């Protein structure tokens, strides 16, 4: 399934994943929700996470993207199970 991601969300994702900007440093090593220029850390409890997803979807009109913000200087191996 292919989903179209808006350009503002793509820019924010690019900054987070490249390690540039204050948000990348603030959320380094964490899973976050990204929509437009809004970044929200993922909650540990399943119900709270879905509440945040629904609130962001209603506010911005698009589904937030879940991503991991890498720590600077570390290498990550991504594995698709």
Description:
The structure is a single chain. With 81 residues, the protein is an alpha+beta fold. It has 3 helices and 3 strands, in the order H-H-E-E-H-E. The protein has a 3-stranded antiparallel sheet with strand order 2-1-3, sandwiched between helices. A hairpin with a 2-residue loop joins strand 1 (30-35) and strand 2. It is globular, with a radius of gyration of 13 Å.
Which key phrases capture this entry?
3 helices; 40% helix; 81 residues; alpha+beta
Topology:
Layout: H1 7-18, H2 22-26, E1 30-35, E2 38-41, H3 46-60, E3 65-69
Antiparallel strand pairs: 1-2, 1-3
Could you give a short description of this structure?
The protein has 3 helices and 3 strands; from the N terminus they run ααββαβ. The chain has 81 residues and is an alpha+beta fold.
Helical percent range? 25-40%
Would you list the SSEs in sequence order as H and E? HHEEHE
User: Which range does the strand content fall in?
Assistant: 15-25%
| Strand segment count | 3
End-to-end distance: 17 Å
Shape annotation: globular
**Main pleated-sheet profile:** 3 strands, antiparallel
